[in-house]
Amino acid sequence: MLDRALEQAGIDRGATYVTNAVKHFKFEPRGKRRIHKKPNEMEIGACHQWYERELKLVQPDLIVALGATAARAVFGRATPIEVNRGRIIEPGDDVSGRTADVLVTVHPSYLLRMPEEDRHAAFERFVADLKLAKRYL
């Protein structure tokens, strides 16, 4: 889903660095499926050291926070997605101490959970969000 959205936004997937704010997978079984469980504050905090190290190594000009967990890791606090998505947030607009600009949008898995009749419009909005990142490449 992310690869398809990046392609439609005109972004070369090879020019991106993708990581996870939380490095472990927590799930609950439902029949034959494993349903991902959202990480809690303690788990996000425990993994923050790896996120910080990756930032120092990669030194991005833009961080794209895909979903609430990523936004929480970037800003150091809960950050509403709908209020903040679709715009570039510059350093100094919060107290996280980051040096990169941030684009907040939904996580691709959110699109998979949408009702079928709403999925196309939600995907197009996701692509529009990602198009804002293109100028950083």
Describe the structure.
- The structure is a single chain.
- By secondary structure, the protein is α+β, with helices and mostly antiparallel strands.
- The protein has one domain (2-136): Uracil-DNA Glycosylase, subunit E, CATH 3.40.470.10.
- The protein has helices at residues 2-9, 41-58, 68-75, 81-84, 108-113, 116-131; strands at 27-30, 33-36, 62-66, 88-89, 101-105.
- The strands form two sheets. Strands 3-5-4 form a three-stranded mixed beta sheet. It has a two-stranded antiparallel ribbon with strand order 1-2.
- A hairpin with a 2-residue loop joins strand 1 (27-30) and strand 2.
- The longest helix has 18 residues, at 41-58.
- The two termini are 20 Å apart.
- The model has no long low-confidence stretch (mean pLDDT 91).
Short description:
The chain is of the alpha+beta class and 137 residues long.
Question: What key phrases describe this protein's structure?
Answer:
137 residues; alpha+beta; Uracil-DNA Glycosylase, subunit E; 3-stranded mixed beta sheet; two-stranded antiparallel ribbon; 6 helices; 44% helix; 15% strand
